[in-house]
Amino acid sequence: MSHPLEELRDNALREIESAHDEKALDNIRVRYLGRSGSISAWGEQMKTLGKDEKPIVGKLLNEVRNALTAAIEERAQKFRVQKESDTLATIDISLPGTPNEIGSLHPLHQMHERGIQIFRRMGFALAEGPDVETEWYCFDALNTPPDHPARNEQDTFYLSDGRLLRTHTSTVQIRAMECAPPPLRVIASGAAYRRDEVDATHSAQFHQIEGLYVDENVSVADLKGELEFFLRELFGFETEVQFRPHYFPFTEPSLEVYVRSKALKRGEHWIEVAGCGMVHPAVFEAVNKARGDKAYDPDKWSGYAFGLGMDRLAMILFDIPDIRLFAQNDLRFLKQFA
User: What are the phi and psi torsion angles at 145 (to 5°)?
Assistant: First the structure.
């Protein structure tokens, strides 16, 4: 005589085999294997069985449970295969496929990578700093006087706690000198923020690469040589570079850099591309005060610093007429740089 569990197994297997869809199969699973199902009920009865009967019934119960689980999974797999087959049958293979477009780096990102690679070849390490800064890092340490226009709320984004969005990445140069003694050769790449009226050539957010080199006997000749090499690598070997006197509070002497190149659309015109100069001794003194030592003794060490607007360089190199195009995510524009 067969055991009731064997009869339960045979009945369940017949129902599983005759299930006509996934929903019916799931109902069978719940009825037999669910928390309140027949198999669970038999499991509850195990504690009422005698000592000799319990291992026999327990073994049979496990066999029945495994058999039903395997049968349900096999039937479910058949339903899945059939569903996929039905879906494929509705596809018209004569229709053209859907093209996959390959993305590319944003032109500003391309310009950053290009600039960083050139400076790395000259021995510069990449340094980073926060976008939200204090006035000390952004102005005081850089010898910016209290009445300088850049400190005005009309020019700079101030936060409610007195901090501000950095107006240049020169703040990273100060942080780099705080962390490491000379000699030091770093570049700082990232965003800067100013309250400019947005138009074709101005944006409230722009991007810079600023450089700093501090060592013994660093001169203007070193500065000119580095920047000439960079600009000729960027715009072409025949690029002419010109340095004109200027004023920045954190460098002395200070210079503006202009280029003229046949590779550019308006190759006959001089175009301003950067600001630079020899690090002001007052900047070294501010760093020494913050460090609590004389690591950057201006009588022993000298250095140069420069700042390059990457948005402007990209506009010049790629002949882009409007800086707002960088932020509009217009695929017609971005696809040109794929």
Answer: -65, 155
